[in-house]
Specification:
17 strands; seven-stranded mixed β-sheet; 16 helices; alpha/beta; 41% helix
Length: 572
């Protein structure tokens, strides 16, 4: 009875025997079923008062019997090709009558079955009309659903429909459409999902997720804000919503599903299993962007360190291949031939290798930090004021640095692109401020709300260099929606680092594109100076404000030094 699946409680031995006998049935290859098989299923379903179904392969063999509806049917664990169907179809009986249910059609689509058929069962246990549906290729004109429902047939006509020819034509059409789409496709096509748990900035977070996806090189073909006060433990959004997203991906030729929330390893696995799509969360997306843009030795080391820290706790659920035994059980103990003796599981081996690599990277970064410390001490000896440029990612910090230092051409020019995290390592350039003289301007890595912890730890030494500055220049993108929230997000990070009380000048960048009322409100709230780094607007006023801030710091330092000298004289 190990081949009969479903709830078998309460069935009599004769009924179980009848279910076993279904395995011995054969039908003509390429057909939905036979009149005799339809009669057997209808009688059994009427007798046990439950749905009874059989899975039939393309050679006409019954490979599975289930006492369950379509969703509860036991399916083989098969890896489906992108341009192929599952290779078997489902024929089952509805003891209460009725055509194909929503569960039948959903199973057809999600399992990529060749077809699904439902037999209506009459009150006397005789088979009635047979309803059949098969998939349609993505982008089929005139089809509103993912499937096509055929006209109902009589049970004695069940072996007249040529399912084999239909499946061959369908797979050929799917393959042709896939080749056409692949020729046109330059990037991975992504669906974006942001959970709205009642946050006031949920829509802005979805837009930011879209920017992250585009920066990573994906083509965003669909995005959705899903309201969920209480998240589902396994899938966040529930099986029904995942089914909708799978259908969207099928029609839009998308292969990537990006969530704005961090997913646990088990959640990612369950969503991947339900949709058949590659699943990425926000943290993984940001790590990928950092890896894409890392140029210097230090930033590459820090990105790899963050990726390994993210990956390590997720090894446990990476699949059965990571838990295979490389050896163990003792030389005289049990275990398969060739695996006996001292050893460890592949999971333990991979975890140990990651730990070794983490230790190596941390030592490498210590050496880089020491060299950076020496450079900082050299600047201190030269007594040159330092201005650190901080702000949300893509606020225009690098463009402002180029404008301040007149570094319009290589090699002094700093990379400035309209994308997130274009700058990952601190870049210093020498500039000039009237009344102060030579000043060092330092561009830092862009901030982002809810910065992943692994990245925050990896870049902490880089961010701590901000504390060596005399003045902070906080650049705010005044033209983007949510400027106030982005400014507050940067201030929270500065507060975590202990730099919130440093002398700060706020530059309201992209003022030429900002709404006048928004600009006026931010000026009043922050005391910021409207500028346009790209068009050199307001830079003179900004330099004057920076000069006043640096002069104030220098006066405070002179006063402190004078007090210290007076204290030493008094002590002597």
């Amino acid at each position: 009875m190990d081949k009969v699946h479903g709830n078998l409680s309460g069935l009599r031995p004769a009924q179980k025997k009848a279910l076993e006998n279904l395995y011995r049935r054969r039908i003509e290859p390429g057909r939905i079923g036979s009149p005799e098989l339809a009669r057997n299923l209808a009688e059994l379903s009427h007798d046990v008062r439950r749905e009874v179904g059989v899975l039939i392969d393309r050679r006409g063999r019954v490979i599975s019997v289930s006492v369950a509806d379509a969703r509860g049917t036991e399916f083989p664990d098969l890896r489906l090709g992108e341009n192929r169907l599952a290779g078997f179809h489902l024929l089952h009986a509805h003891p209460r009558g009725g055509a194909l249910s929503k569960g039948d059609l959903s199973t057809l689509f999600l399992k990529r079955l060749d077809a699904v058929s439902a037999i209506e069962v009459g009150n006397d246990g005789r088979p009635g009309l047979v309803h059949t549906a098969h998939l349609t290729p993505p982008g089929t004109v005139g089809e509103e659903e993912d499937w096509r429902i055929l006209p109902p047939a009589q049970p004695f006509e069940i072996d007249e429909f040529d399912l084999g020819a239909q499946v061959s034509a369908l797979e050929e059409e799917i393959a042709r459409a896939a080749r056409t789409r692949e020729a046109k496709k330059d990037h991975e096509r992504a669906l974006l999902v942001q959970i709205d748990g009642g946050e006031f900035d949920a829509e802005e977070r979805l837009e930011e997720l879209g920017e992250l996806a585009r920066t990573a090189g994906a083509e965003v073909v669909y995005k959705e804000l899903i309201y969920r006060r209480n998240l589902k433990p396994g899938t966040l959004v529930g099986a029904g919503k995942l089914e909708e997203l799978t259908s969207k991906a099928y029609h839009l030729d998308a292969d990537l599903l990006i969530f704005g929330q961090e997913l646990g390893p088990a959640q990612a696995r369950e969503i991947e299993a339900a949709t058949g799509l590659k699943v990425v969360d926000r943290t993984q997306l940001i790590l990928d962007i950092f890896a894409l843009h890392a140029q210097g030795v230090e930033s590459r080391l820090q990105v790899e360190l963050a990726q390994l820290r993210y990956m390590k706790p997720r090894l446990l659920g990476a699949g059965a291949q990571l838990s295979r035994i490389g050896g163990g059980g003792g030389s005289a103990g049990g275990g398969a031939i060739g695996t006996r003796g001292p050893g460890e599981t592949k999971l333990e081996l991979d975890r140990r290798r990651i730990n070794d690599r983490l230790s190596f990277l941390e030592k490498q970064l210590e050496g880089v930090s020491q060299r950076r410390e020496e450079r900082r001490k050299s600047r201190e000896r030269n007594d040159v004021p330092v201005v650190s440029i901080v702000g949300y990612t893509n606020a225009g910090k690098s463009t402002l640095l180029n404008s301040f230092t007149h570094a319009a051409e290589e090699p002094r020019r700093v990379l400035a692109e309209n994308k997130l995290f274009a700058t990952l390592r601190p870049t210093s350039r020498q500039g000039y401020i009237e009344g102060i003289g030579q000043v060092i301007f330092t561009d830092t890595v862009g901030f982002i709300r809810d910065l992943p912890k692994d990245l925050s730890r990896a870049f902490r030494s880089t961010l701590e260099e901000i504390g060596d500055a005399d003045v902070l220049l906080h650049v705010v993108d005044a033209a983007s929606p949510g400027a106030e929230q982005r400014l507050d997000a940067v201030n929270r990070i500065l507060d975590d680092l202990g730099f919130r009380d440093m002398p700060t000048v706020v530059a309201l960048n992209k003022a030429d594109r900002a709404e006048p009322e928004v600009l006026a409100r931010e000026q009043e709230r922050t005391g910021g100076i409207p500028v346009s780094a790209l068009k050199n607007i307001g830079l003179t006023e900004l330099k004057e404000a920076l000069g006043d801030a640096v002069a104030s710091v220098q006066r405070a330092e002179l006063a402190r030094q004078e007090e210290a000298r007076a204290a030493r004289v008094e002590w002597r």
